[in-house]
Amino acid sequence: MTVDWITLQQRAHDEFASRVAAVDDWDAPTPDTDWTVRDLVRHVTREQQWVPVLLEGGHPSESDTVVEPLGDDLVAEWRRWSTAATEAWRAADPDADVTLSTEVVAVKEYLAEQVSDVTIHTWDLSRAIGADEELDDDLVEAVWGVFEPQKDALEASGLFASPVPVGDDAPLRIRLLALTGRDAR
Hints:
Blueprint: H1 5-21, H2 37-55, H3 63-66, H4 74-91, E1 97-99, E2 104-106, H5 107-129, H6 137-147, H7 151-157, H8 172-179
Antiparallel strand pairs: 1-2
Helix pairs in contact: 1-4, 1-5, 2-4, 2-5, 5-6, 6-8
């Protein structure tokens, strides 16, 4: 399958935006027990703030000087930084390199990572606010293609909880979420 990551990036951002707009309780818990809804939305928005900086050759060590603090209106902040990230992705050379905190990767790999992160966190936000937990099929398939080959490394990284056991016959969305330590059943 050929993946159009730019189209999927916009789709992932649109799905996340619809959930952000539906938030009533910013202090509600999320599937990540360390985060409230506010913390989750701030995390995903903060990641988008970094996209233009890193794609323009910035370095993660510059956090205090190049990335401004987020305001309290997280709906507006998401809109602002999602737009900035989307514009940066569209202008970027997918074969150029970008420096992340732990490695240097091709822009297209960073894009796939970011789409994957937003997609998984869209489900987290959906679960937290009681919204529709379905995810776009193309996003699920593309993110599965990123995460499944890395399943052992993902678990060892500590970025996600241990995988949740599910059958091989479970829908791909359920298997993807289970791979990232989420029980979506």
